[in-house]
## 1
Amino acid sequence: MRPPGGALVESPTTVAWQTRRAPLLNSMDFNTDHFTLFELPVRFRLDAALLDRRYLEMQSRVHPDRFASAGESERRLSLQWATRVNEAYQTLKKPLSRARYLLHLAAQDVGSENNVLMPADFLVEQMEWREAVAEARAAGEHHELEHLHHRLQGDIDERYGELAVLLDDRRDLEQAADRVRRLMFIEKLLVELDDAMIACEEQ
Amino acid sequence: MALLQIAEPGESAAPHEHRLAVGIDLGTTNSLVATVRSGLAVVLRDELGRPLLPSVVRYLPDGSCQVGYEAQARQALDPRNAIASVKRFMGRGIADIANHESMPYVFQDGPGMLRMHTVAGLKSPVEVSADILRVLRLRAEAALGGALVGAVITVPAYFDEAQRQATKDAAQLAGLPVLRLLNEPTAAAIAYGLDNAAEGVYAVYDLGGGTFDISILRLSRGIFEVLATGGDSALGGDDFDHRIFCWIIEAADLKPLSVEDASMLLARAREAKEYLTVHGAAPISGRLSSGEIVDLTLTTEIFAEISQTLVAKTMQPVKKALRDAGLSVGEVKGVVMVGGATRMSQVQRAVGEFFRQDPLNNLDPDKVVAIGAATQANLLAGNRAAGDDWLLLDVIPLSLGLETMGGLVEKIIPRNSTIPTARAQEFTTFRDGQTALAIHVVQGERELVSDCRSLARFELRGIPPMVAGAARIRVSFQVDADGLLAVTAREQTSGVEASIVVKPSYGLSDDEIAGMLKDSITHVRDDAQQRALKESQVDAQRLLEAVRAALAADAELLAADELARVHNAIARLEAAALADNRRQIMLAMDDLEADTKDFAARRMDKSIRRAFAGRNINELDSDAAATTTGEHA
Ligand SMILES: Nc1ncnc2c1ncn2[C@@H]1O[C@H](COP(=O)(O)OP(=O)(O)OP(=O)(O)O)[C@@H](O)[C@H]1O
Ligand SMILES: [Mg+2]
């Protein structure tokens, strides 16, 4: 098994190819950042409905199905553009990837999921959360899982609020990167919790 | 055409020849073919006026076969040679098939995909499906009066690559060019959405004969955006039949049955199931070959009880799909029911309870998938008419990844990513002086490679010797709008590169397919050549038409010498298209393509700038408003 939440240490003897970096955004350079592509301000706080609308507008212009009977070069261009637009949208839509992307634009290193060092107290706290989830899951206590879920979601919302202040108001990138690293762990935990709830219902 | 569509999406430049294209619902139980005629999608009927073609193929000793109602009628008499529900075997080995021991067929496991022994020899599921598709192709050609440019064939959203490839191979074998494989629930959503001018988030719950799919879509101003999809490609009405069958054996205390008796009782089980949709109790009676009489009554209550776990099994993918879409039950505006098995009352009830609303049943569940497929086929064939302005944004159903050390999977593209999509990730060597890297592409959600489906393997060689961890190997995955995956690996410092277009190995090699094709089409060889020539002439005309339209709209984007070159290439292609040499035509098309490449890029740029140009003041205002609205979840 992989260590939960991304490896803490790397061990070259057991891992054939370690992931060097998180997937870095685009290999194709269309010369603009994702925000500018959708004509949105480069910042964390975002009008989600507006992003959705711009995305659909763009996609309805460039999607390959619009070029089903076009020539080879147009089809290729359309494929590249549609890919690019999808990538930009996916990156901006979710707050965690949006924050990581902002830090990437500012050349602030966040580290990859499998390779970050976290303070011990945070890790202990994470362990405790995981144990609580595992226990509730093993005991089939759906109610307890729901309770944990509610608490964690509240915690996450609060953290994104804090992150918005760090990124948009205080421009404190180092602190923001630290919060992002923590959220990487916590978001994974949330997925595990969801899985546990679904597994619990299956029984 | 398309060049003009950039400027005004959805409007055809000039009237042109209508290209014959069809949508095919290749179902576990029933198959259909539909087409768009005078702007209206219609299901094509057989000579007796019947829209459905039962997906049953019966092989005869002389090597021929019966397909459809005829084969279905002989199923109980000749169960070994009358193959039904073959879709469940597509791209599958014996180990993948639940209840295979209670099936009448004589299976032979092959590498990747099973085969069946019949009086007409060993048959793969691909061949059986091809026999069904061929009948539908002939039906369409007869009705439309010409050769088809292609078909959109539907598959369960939850079909993996092996199952999809098997479907494409079957089409090829049946002489049908595939425009695209379209997910069944998506096809249904297109038909429903266009018919009802629906807007908002909809779920499509599709329980057919052999497969279950759930898709969550957002419909907004003519765009169908699939948000998430999930399902179980081995769960459907057949399984409910099997539950009843088991109940009969238990209730009547029957000894092990002959294949004929088992087939007969399975048919009785299905009849009872369908009868229960409108009645409170169903009689089940039959005489076994031993003379023993079975006479039972199945009530709705008992049926609900013995099938309860099956119904519950459909709810897990529903929950997961909602989660992947990031939505709660309350945000779903409507639930569209598709597939014959959704007629069962316990299914209707369970879905209604889960979504806290009455499911939508106002579509013909048998036809809606084929209608949606025909609509998409019409579009992909280039028959877009003014006002026909809709677009589908689809997703990949299963995650794509790579094997890493220790048999673990590193996911590169997560499931439910909107296509087209591309992702890259960097890897490195783990041994000093390592010069080659094995790349194993897999599909699935599990952590271990052994629990996922293998799609392809290739090697990157010629990596310059370095210390472990020094090489930087970038592996990129690209999935195009058809769902086709290409993988490239490149060592960054030296630039050595290897790549593959993924075509999974599920048991039939290209040679085998070619062999089968040859067997079935040697006599129509000349036809095929003639057809290829015709096709390239039509393609040439379309290209010419598109370039002329583009010049009419945007010639100012070209400098005088560029314009002259384009006109020159046009003249050469016009000349080539008049002659009967396919190669000449292709070459001239390539030239024109090359000479208009920059032009196309400039037009694309212009169009993208235009995408935002017409924005009004209100929209610009919401930019300002965004300053105060945070979004965190
Ligand atoms: N009135 C009915 N009540 C219950 N079940 C029914 C009824 N009518 C049809 N069915 C069942 O619906 C199933 C066939 O549905 P459908 O034709 O939608 O499937 P299909 O498209 O062939 O399969 P799939 O989509 O899984 O490949 C069969 O199991 C059939 O018994
Ligand atoms: Mg179906």
Note: Residues 444 and 452 of chain B are 5 Å apart (CA to CA).
## 2
Amino acid sequence: MTLTHPSALPATDPNDWRDAVYELFRASAIRQVVYVPDAGHTRLIDRCHADPDMHAVVLSTEEEGVAHLAGAWLGGDRGVMLMQSSGVGNCVNMFSLLAACRLPFVTLVTMRGEWGEFNPWQVQMGRTTPDILKISGLTVHRVDDPADVAETVDSALRIAFDGSQGVAVLLSQRLIGRKDFTAED
Amino acid sequence: MSAALLDRRDVVARLLADRRDLLVVSGLGSATYDCAAAGDDPRNFYLWGAMGGTAALALGLALAQPTKPVLGITGDGDLLMGLGTLTTIGAQAPANLSIIVLDNEVYGETGEQPTATAHGTDLTAVARACRLNAVDEVADMAGVEALAARLHAGDGPLFANIKIAPGNPEKVLPARDGAYLRDRFRGAVLGDAA
Ligand SMILES: Cc1ncc(C[n+]2csc(CCOP(=O)(O)OP(=O)(O)O)c2C)c(N)n1
């Protein structure tokens, strides 16, 4: 299937890793991007919404996204879930679907609670997220350097869709930048 | 409530009798057994777990296959666990998706503990508030007949709550290896592209 590159979209900034991930989604024929928002995903979410070849779907909870992407795959669509580390906790039982049906699954997780975190309520899921993902059967890639993001996401997409595996890419809090609670926005 | 509640097996058999290109996702427990009892089909995706996930899985499928009718059929307990998904479905508004609840007002699989629908939660009203096209609660086989035709009308997202009689009919167990169910479903829907 050929894709028409939408012309009305914001131009890709080659120095912005979020744009590089978006371009990778297009090149990898990602059709459904489901998410519960995190500030770190904002630009990527906006770009997916602006793309007429993608369904960008806001979820009421992250566990929905696991089931949603299972359905998408059954119907022949590749998808990705965007969430923050707290959302991983919401997914745990639904991850059993991935194991039971050996489904491909990719999630990009913005990490909170692990680096200079102001909000102590984020710390628990920041600490437990990598282990929860691993014991749930997912392969975990972690990225700290913006220059490594696209390559890492590419690896995740290949592992998932070439071999029917679950993969999580953790985008570290150092990479995203810690949330500034004193700023105006 | 009328004296004679509908029999779940009669309802599901009628919904699937003339299924044509309908893709079916069934919720864990009784809905899965009902669909198997109506006749196994590679275009049935039976859930044996993932409680709360039936409607979300059906939504992802409906978006991926917009030219085919998709039915998510499940129990009230399963729908209640993922009730927020109705808001997601309402926002996406896929015309080819139908969600049907077999509402026996209990968690039948686990010992018939009453669900919130036994205490008056009105799932039809909830679905309407989430902007699904919800038909009035179905209470007789004529209503089921009409609903079976609506599944193919493409004027969804459709929602129907069907009050059914309590009691667990004899279990009809379909395959439960998820990877097998996945492969045969994708083979049936996608053909060589699977
Ligand atoms: C997360 C989770 N919690 C609890 C259960 C146990 N459980 C299995 S089936 C079921 C009840 C399902 O009720 P409903 O969807 O109304 O179907 P019914 O059995 O009444 O037809 C429950 C609570 C489970 N499988 N998963």
Note: The radius of gyration of chain A is 16 Å.
